[in-house]
Amino acid sequence: MQSNPFSLDGMSILVTGASSGIGREVAVWLSRQGARIVAVARDAQRLEETLSQLHGEGHSVEVFDFLGGSDVSAWLKALSRNGSPFDGLVHAAGVQLPLPIRAMGLDHWETIFATNVTSGFSLIKAFRQKGVCRNPSSIVMLSSVMAQVAQPALIGYCASKGAVESMVRAAALELAREGIRVNAIAPGVIKTEMAQKLEGLVGEDAMAAIERKHPLGLGHPLDVAYAVNYLLSPAARWVTGTSLVVDGGYLAE
Ligand SMILES: NC(=O)c1ccc[n+]([C@@H]2O[C@H](COP(=O)([O-])OP(=O)(O)OC[C@H]3O[C@@H](n4cnc5c(N)ncnc54)[C@H](OP(=O)(O)O)[C@@H]3O)[C@@H](O)[C@H]2O)c1
């Protein structure tokens, strides 16, 4: 038995959405636990800010746009050839685009699904390639409590997170024999840019009402990072195909 089954020491982890919010905090926390991070997003400058906050050596940044049409499998294959195979993947890139149904066009819907769902499928497919991941390894996808409940103006987002959780279950069944565990984390509202944008749309009073629905108050990106740590670590070796709710009690009501 390992002396600390929660340790990530020496692991190589790809983190998407690492230029902001949850992805950035996850990257920083995992680096503090001894992991080597490849931090992915579109904004090179914000990725460099993340890089400057990482602890230890050997980290790198990768500018990649999941809406850009590039081949995710070829990209991950090249990344692992230049570095070492990955022990983990955390997919925190995502968009919310809150819009009432009357204002939501098919283009908005497709942007949400391409960023939140199709990117996840492409990453899972790419990650399982020979030489890209180790056996055992672990994939963590960011879902949301909105996979289970809803709010007005979030039809696309809610549907996309429901799809993420279904995809995680299907991938977990298929990839178990390859030693790859696949799980989701479903946060309540976490104080990030995404939550700020939501407040900008719904207003302070509505946001205060949303906050009151969280018995423990709104979350911090670090609350999600701790859960990611667990799912990536050997301590979660018998956990796959599930979604871990981290929501300050939001769904308990
Ligand atoms: N904050 C919350 O309350 C909350 C609650 C539940 C679930 N979540 C989920 O947690 C994840 C992270 O959310 P967050 O709050 O940290 O959001 P955020 O601060 O808005 O960050 C989103 C990240 O996604 C990246 N991204 C967006 N579109 C991309 C694209 N086309 N290609 C590559 N990267 C892209 C952004 O980077 P660039 O702009 O640099 O590309 C950024 O790093 C999302 O999946 C979100 O749905 C958040």
TrEMBL record:
Parts forming coiled coils: none
* Gene3D superfamilies per the UniProt record, alphabetical: NAD(P)-binding Rossmann-like Domain (3.40.50.720)
List the Pfam families: adh_short_C2 (PF13561)
Keywords, alphabetical? Oxidoreductase
What region holds the Ketoreductase domain?
A: 11-188
**Which CDD domains does this entry report, sorted A to Z?**
SDR_c
Q: Which domain of life is it from?
A: Bacteria
Cited InterPro entries = KR_dom (IPR057326), NAD(P)-bd_dom_sf (IPR036291), Sc_DH/Rdtase_CS (IPR020904), SDR_DHRS6-like (IPR051122), SDR_fam (IPR002347)
Q: Does the keyword Oxidoreductase apply?
A: yes
Q: Which family does it belong to?
A: Belongs to the short-chain dehydrogenases/reductases (SDR) family.
Protein's UniProt name: SDR family oxidoreductase
Organism, scientific name: Pseudomonas petrae
Species classification: Bacteria, Pseudomonadati, Pseudomonadota, Gammaproteobacteria, Pseudomonadales
